[in-house]
Each structure stands twice: as C-alpha cells, then as structure tokens.
Design a protein that fits this description.
Largest sheet: none
Number of helices: 4
Structural class: mainly alpha
Helix content: over 70%
Distance between the termini: 20 Å
Number of strands: 0
Shape: elongated
Radius of gyration: 16 Å
Oligomer: single chain
Strand content: under 5%
Length: 132
C-alpha cells in the first residue's frame, strides 16, 4: 500500500514532470541549432553544457521519483548517489537562473524552477529514510 507521500509524488510527476519533460524535448533541436550555428564561443558552449546537465538532472529526477513512487523510501536508499548529485546540479542551475531573473537576465532555464518542489520532496524523503 502506498503512503500519502508516494501519492503526492505521483501528483508532482503528472503536474510538474510531464510538462517540463515535454518542453525540454521540444526545445532540444533549437538549443542544438543555436549551440552549433555560430562559431565556437564560450556562451554557446556554456548553453550546451547547461542544457546537457539540465537534461541529465531531469532524467535522474524521473529515476528517483519513479523509484520512490514504486518502492517508497526503501527504493530511494537503493539508488546510486550519482543520481542525487546530478539532480542537485539541476537544482543549482534552477536557483542560479531564478537569481538571474531577479536582475532581469532571463534564461530558458527558469522552467526548472518548478522542479525544485519535487527536488525538495525527494531530498526530504531521502534524508528521512537515512535517519530511520
């Protein structure tokens, strides 16, 4: 039987994960075109790297969320720590992007800000399961 927290994770996957995954998949060709259409510049290189890290973080978030939803806190404990590191890098990008927005330097990575909700939920569950 699933806990209330697992049901919340399912709701987060439906409301947050699916739309952001769809947007990320649809924007991939445009990011590749922008990154490769101009001569090699540091800004284009950083855009490509940031996009790759964000994509990896979204994938790792799906792994963690599905593992938690299916197996609960025990499932989270059994996942490699590498997934947690990658998801944390994605959260850092979202926080930096929101900080840049405060100074009116908007980036496309603001779409990652809603992912901070399931990130916080997963990190809470991970910490809570490690203390038991």
């Amino acid at each position: 039987m699933r806990s209330l927290n697992q049901h919340w994770m399912l709701a987060e996957m439906i409301v947050i994960f699916i739309p952001i995954t769809f947007i990320l998949m649809m924007s991939a060709p445009f990011v590749v075109m922008v990154s490769l259409s101009r001569p090699l510049q540091i800004a284009n290189l950083l855009l490509g790297i940031t996009y790759c890290v964000s994509s990896a973080a979204l994938y790792a978030s799906w792994v963690l969320a599905l593992r938690f939803w299916r197996h609960g806190a025990d499932g989270l404990r059994m996942v490699s720590k590498h997934y947690t590191v990658i998801v944390t890098l994605g959260a850092v990008i979202a926080v930096i992007s929101s900080g840049m927005a405060l100074f009116e330097q908007t980036t496309g990575f603001l779409l990652g800000v809603p992912m901070l909700i399931p990130y916080s939920h997963l990190m809470y569950e991970l910490r809570a399961s490690n203390t038991v």
